[in-house]
Amino acid sequence: MSATIRFENASDASDVSHVIEVAFRGHPHSDGSEPRIVSRLREEGDLTISLLAEQDKRVVGHIAFSPVSINPQTLGWYGLGPVAVLPAHQSRGIGTALVLRGLSELEAIGAIGCVVFGNLAFYGRFGFKSYPNLVYPNGPKELFHAKVFGGAVPNGTVTYSSAFGAA
């Protein structure tokens, strides 16, 4: 069964929080803060792209994109995450569909690139790669990757929205 991907609207916030909470429950790299991160991104106006996957009019997946800063100052870069799919709906292509649509939407708004903190076995399929001169100091470097839509990869340190630290 395929999912419909659409933009989040104001009435979706509780469904989004539920999907994220259930998807990350018990995950070894989760501290349970992911639903609060997305809520804070929304509150702070940093939730640039928020997409849902629906099946049978039920939200089963979500992906968020928010601006990141790169020091020295580089504009037009975004962070992917979190991405969440209800466990009963995983391994059915929903996460892939969310990532593909989200990256397409980023390109449409003129983004220069996107970073992600996650498994390269998954994100490498979408063109994400490790770049030694683009650094995220708050986690293992083997989990930090970038995708460039045009131009060169900047040298610098990436900082995510304050919503990630305040969650």
Describe the structure.
The protein has about 170 residues and is of the alpha+beta class. Helices cover about 30% and strands about 30% of the residues. The protein has one domain: 3-Layer(aba) Sandwich (Aminopeptidase), CATH 3.40.630.30. The strands form two sheets. A six-stranded mixed sheet has the order 1-2-3-5-6-8, sandwiched between helices. Strands 4-9-7 form a three-stranded mixed sheet, with no helix packed on it. Helix 3 links the parallel strand 5 and strand 6. The termini are far apart. The model has no long low-confidence stretch (mean pLDDT about 90).
List keywords for this structure.
six-stranded mixed beta sheet, three-stranded mixed beta sheet, 167 residues, Aminopeptidase
Summarize the structure.
With 167 residues, the chain is an alpha+beta fold.
Number of helices: 5
Strand content: 25-35%
Examine the coordinates and then state which fold CATH places here, giving the name of the CATH topology: Aminopeptidase
Helix content: 25-40%
From the spread of the alpha carbons, the general shape counts as: globular
How many extended strands?
9
Stretches where pLDDT is under 50 for at least 5 consecutive residues are none
CATH architecture: 3-Layer(aba) Sandwich
Q: Give the ordered list of helices and strands.
A: EHHEEEEHEHEEEH
Structural class: alpha+beta
Overall mean pLDDT stands at: 92
In spatial order, strands of the major sheet run 1-2-3-5-6-8
Alpha-carbon distance between the termini?
34 Å
